[in-house]
Design a protein that fits this description.
single chain; 436 residues; alpha/beta; Rossmann fold; 3 domains; five-stranded parallel sheet; two-stranded antiparallel sheet; 55% helix; 8% strand; elongated
């Protein structure tokens, strides 16, 4: 009887714990979505870069943004860390050719040496200090020489350790993720002459997720940016440590198939001579894939998650971009490609409908263009229904697509009825029509 009672109590406690963990993860997912929405509102035309930085935080990876000055790279990195890790737990440093290891990792503690004869490093205010969970390296490729012997270990996602003066072994830090920004690729890449003092190849490889930031804003977006300078949106609350840990665990729990598009992409990269895409990098990108799934509220890997990892992590130099586009186009199964074609056709049909609506001036014309849109969408849907669900890379992809089709249908119906109501209004003569 006692044993039964104990087991029952333990089961109840485990059930309560599981429920609490589920609630915490749900809250964390909702808060992460609010942060993502805020960043996309403030940093226009930066959707991919925002996802890259958030994935780096969730996955405990390193991410770097490359681009010309004035493209908000540094500001985006800083705000992302402040909202996901917390201002008090972020260490930031702008590198220059004279930056030393001591400035980053800590100075020798002269007082300890003088008072106690101890040979140790003072880490206060440095990346190695207790409580530092994330770091931002601005102009990361400006530094040279001995600095990189230390940064090589702390940027290793499996170690995050540093050799400090007085320590018998590398010291494990509390750093989980490192973000960086640079105006250019490191020497030896992007057409830059290799530096004879420092070989950047190994250090460049440490940055799992990479993106080039370009200044491509429409006039409307520029106006929005100017208005936001006067009334900047209030940011949401930062993630708590428990919420961040919950998201990181959720990423580790994401399901994926042994035979998946990322491995297919890896083999294609080998065939194209992209030797920098190593098995180690593949492992980190597999985790990025799972973190990207969590960012989008999924507990399984979608084809788009794999494609994100390839786009962010397979390139090393600018001349890799064409090969990566080819790889992404061939990543999925034939069924995946047919599903992509279906959505491209739906986008085309919608674009034609919106264009034709601009010229509609009567209910009869509205009916004609709407019927044409319906028939084109119906033909595309008939092709969609023939896609074999078992051959899609993503579990439940077809069911999810059906839900999107219903949502698209409802939105198109709303647009139709809104135009119908507008055209049905009686015409009223303006009081100035008779003015000579």
């Amino acid at each position: 009887m006692t044993t039964t009672t104990a087991n029952t109590t333990t089961t109840a406690a485990n059930t309560t714990t599981t429920a609490n963990e589920g609630t915490m993860t749900d809250n964390a997912t909702a808060n992460l979505a609010a942060i993502r929405q805020h960043l996309n509102t403030v940093y226009l035309s930066r959707g991919f870069q925002i996802d890259l930085l958030l994935v780096a935080v969730i996955g405990g990876l390193n991410g770097v943004l490359i681009g010309p000055p004035g493209t908000a790279k540094s500001q985006l990195c800083r705000e992302t860390l402040h909202l996901t890790v917390g201002t008090d737990h972020v260490w930031a440093k702008q590198f220059n050719p004279f930056t030393t290891k001591d400035e980053v990792f800590g100075f020798m503690d002269i007082k300890a040496m003088k008072d106690h004869g101890e040979y140790r490093t003072d880490t206060r205010g440095r990346i190695t200090a207790p409580g530092v969970h994330a770091a931002f390296f601005d102009e990361v490729f400006k530094a040279f020489g001995p600095l990189f012997s230390g940064t090589m270990s702390i940027t290793h996602t499996g170690e995050r350790a540093v050799d400090l003066q007085g320590d018998p072994a590398p010291r494990k830090t509390e750093v989980e993720t490192i973000l960086a920004a640079s105006n250019e690729l490191p020497p030896g890449f992007g057409g830059r002459r290799a530096d004879q003092r420092t070989d950047f190849t190994a250090f460049w490889d440490r940055w799992t997720l990479r993106s080039v930031v370009q200044s491509t804003l429409t006039d409307e977006q520029l106006v929005r940016i100017l208005r936001m300078q006067l009334n900047r949106p209030t940011p949401p609350a930062a993630l708590t440590k428990a919420e961040r840990r919950g998201l990181q665990q959720a990423a580790r729990d994401v399901q994926w198939k042994d035979k998946n598009p990322l491995i297919k992409a890896f083999r294609m990269a080998e065939q194209k001579g992209m030797s920098h895409v190593t098995a180690r990098r593949l492992g980190e990108l597999m985790h990025a894939t799972r973190a990207h799934a969590v960012l989008h509220g999924r507990d399984y890997c979608h084809l788009e998650d794999y494609r994100f990892a390839v786009k962010a992590g397979f390139w090393q130099d600018f001349d890799d971009f064409d090969r990566i586009r080819e790889i992404i186009a061939e990543m999925g199964t034939e069924a995946d490609k047919r599903l992509d074609l279906f959505w491209r056709e739906i986008d085309r049909v919608q674009g034609v409908y919106f264009r034709d609506l601009e010229n509609v001036s009567s209910l009869d014309e509205l009916t004609v263009v709407s019927q044409a849109c319906f028939e084109a969408a119906q033909q595309a849907t008939a092709v969609f229904n023939q896609i074999p669900e078992a051959e899609l890379s993503t579990p439940g992809a077809k069911d999810a697509a059906r839900e999107q089709i219903v949502a698209w249908r409802d939105e198109m119906s709303r647009i139709f009825h809104a135009h119908k109501a507008e055209l049905s209004k009686p015409e009223v003569s303006a009081p100035f029509d008779g003015l000579a």
